[in-house]
Amino acid sequence: MTFSVDAIRAQFPILSTSVRGKPLVYLDNGATTQKPEVVIDALSEYYRTQNSNVHRGAHYLSDLATAEFEGARQIVADFLNAQREEIIWTRGTTEAINLVAQCYGREQLREGDEVLISALEHHSNIVPWQMACARAGATLNVIPILDDGSLDLDSFHSMLSERTRIVAIVHASNSLGTLNPVADIIAAAKKVGAVTLIDGAQAVSHLPVDVKALDCDFYAFSGHKVFAPTGIGALYGRHALLDAMPPYQGGGEMIEKVTFESSTWNELPYKFEAGTPNIGGAIGLGAALKWLSAQDRPALLAHENNLLAYATERAQDMTGLQLIGTAPNKVSVLSFLLEGGHPNDIGQLLDQQGVAVRTGHHCTMPLMDRLGIPGTVRASFSVYNSRNDVDALFNALEKVKTFL
């Protein structure tokens, strides 16, 4: 299979858009990726020809929708090398982590226990654990980072103890791109009997993920960061843990039997899926993962790594630009500051030239505090970006410098 960035780009209609009279240069993939035609078509097909509720309808459309919906669940399971019953539909990574923090953490944490996270975490992998620890009287400990943005692994190993009950760690940092050695972290956590949760939101679009090979207990990701619609995501959970956990929410679908006196729960995975699900979103996610799996993934990763290397070289050659996050192992994220300009102002000036980036603290305020900065400009690359996009970014930055 021969990789062609032009052939990939042609499958994403929005990339032909003009912004403020300029061709769109979309470098905000860490926030959300664009959608290929096959995903858009899958959504359209569902709403045009299959729209119905799932599982209990005694009619043709419901049968069609149920088959597509559960077929998408199997696609996610295959994508992660999991069992179908171990895949829980969620609204995204945030809800998935909250589910684990409430249904596992709330039940298992006790006073004196410890939860271990890192200084790289997104707020969605900080706040739920703060809440769970506060309820239980447990302690939330934070693995520090080195100045280049990589995890301080010596500190991690020294912080692990028999009191560590949960290790919740990001696979790849959304702010800096740092790629954590999650397999090693999981193995070390297991030696002290800790349960592991991996925030995979920024990893799944770049790297193949095998939850059985990783041997993690939970893995969470969001559809909209892997070419699928917003408002849909998935949680992988080890079968035995999910089976023992109480439900997340109450209502329809998650029950087996209800009386006014008591209720019993449905089997996995439905025990954690109260109410009508995001059927179209799940079908769209299935289409996205099917599309991604059909690509030459090693070639896609090599392309993204080459883009990051090229962008880093351009950044190092630019006077007044400071790179933030220079860990040796990264996904395709370039965070930086430009002398004399606030990140928000730089982002707005880039937008005037058709270049879309993300600015601010990127929902990692503690990380920004650790780095001593208010935020960064973040350019994040995906499979459909090219060297032309990198050149457009730096040409636009040169113009921005004239305003500063």
Please give a structural write-up.
The protein is of the alpha/beta class. It has two domains: 5-30 and 296-403, Aspartate Aminotransferase, domain 1 (Alpha-Beta Complex); 41-293, Type I PLP-dependent aspartate aminotransferase-like (Major domain) (Aspartate Aminotransferase, domain 2, 3-Layer(aba) Sandwich), CATH 3.40.640.10. The chain contains 14 helices and 17 strands. A seven-stranded mixed sheet has the order 4-10-9-8-7-5-6, with helices on both faces. A hairpin with a 2-residue loop joins strand 1 and strand 2 (22-23). Helix 3 (60-80) packs across helix 10. The mean pLDDT is 97.
Number of helices: 14
The CATH fourth-level homologous superfamily of the largest domain? Type I PLP-dependent aspartate aminotransferase-like (Major domain)
| Strand elements, count | 17
What is the correct CATH architecture of the largest domain? 3-Layer(aba) Sandwich
Distance between the termini: 46 Å
Give me the Rg, rounded.
Answer: 22 Å
Residues in helices, as a percent range: 40-55%
Biggest sheet: strand arrangement: 4-10-9-8-7-5-6
Residues in β-strands, percent:
15-25%
